[in-house]
Amino acid sequence: MKVDDVSVRFGGVKALSNVSFDVRKGELFSLIGPNGAGKTSMLNCISGRYRPTSGNIAWQGDDLLKHSINDRASLGIGRTFQNLALFGHMSVLDNILVGRHHRMKNNFVTGMFYWVGGARREELKERRFVETIIDFLEIQHVRNEPAGILSYGLRKRVELARAIAIEPELILLDEPMAGMNLEEKEDMARFIIALREEFDMTIMMIEHDMGVVMDLSDRVAVLDFGRVIAAGSPEEVLADEHVKKAYLGEDDEMLDALAAEEAEAVA
Questions:
Q1: Domain ABC transporter: where (predicted)?
Q2: What structural domains does the chain harbor?
Q3: How remote is the C-alpha of 208 from its chain's centroid?
Q4: Where on the phi/psi map is residue 6: left (φ > 0), alpha (ψ -120 to 50), or beta?
């Protein structure tokens, strides 16, 4: 995916200003920055919730902006949300099946002949894939529970499961570890790493936990006041003076510790 000179205005407020970057197939690309920097606005442009005021977004060489928000799931783009968007009264299984719905080809007429037509076979096939996701995210024990009664960490897993159910080539993760305790973060990090291996997905992630970002990312771009102020490898971003000032508050001790951890991991 290639984002080229994207700007977004809301009245007199410019949420994004001439933002450009690319996401390469198979990588984990992180978009970071202070609160209000424009990170979620960028994801909303990619997923179709917002339309840029100017600029272009190309997906596999095609103009993404000409496609509706509903079309983008079929094009291979899925996402999770910063604020959970589950159907709380529905079971975990049904929430995940909602994400699978767009891949089902049966209609009202074929559904009338469920037992003798292809509708039943198709549903069984889709359910097998959903079971794979449930096993992958280790949520078998809550599969029939209403999503609304689960712990926050488990609801985050269910939302990720629903996004995986689309079988996207690119998955957009909006703060997947926000509000989690250390154990929940470790589990989620493990699942995100495995997404590439198990499902061959490219990942674009927004995350505030700098340790997680530096450990997991192949490349990082930093937004501040809607502009890209740095981009590159985690090591390059950590060393950037603009990032220290805008995002990390020039906390040299923390930066040195993160840089040392990164160097140790590389060694």
A1: 1-250
A2: 21-48+171-267 (3.40.50.300), 80-167 (3.40.50.300)
A3: 14
A4: beta
**Tokens standing for 137?**
């995210």
- Contact assessment for residue 84 and residue 156, using Cβ atoms and an 8 Å cutoff: yes
Question: What's the predicted TM-score (pTM) here?
Answer: 0.83
Q: How many CB atoms lie within 10 A of CB 179?
A: 12
Cβ atoms of 199 and 164 closer than 8 Å? yes
Residue pLDDT, tens place only, 185-208: 999 999 999 998 889 999 999 998
Q: How confident is the model over 14-36, as pLDDT tens digits?
A: 999 999 999 999 999 999 998 88
Query: What does the pLDDT read at residue 114?
Result: 46
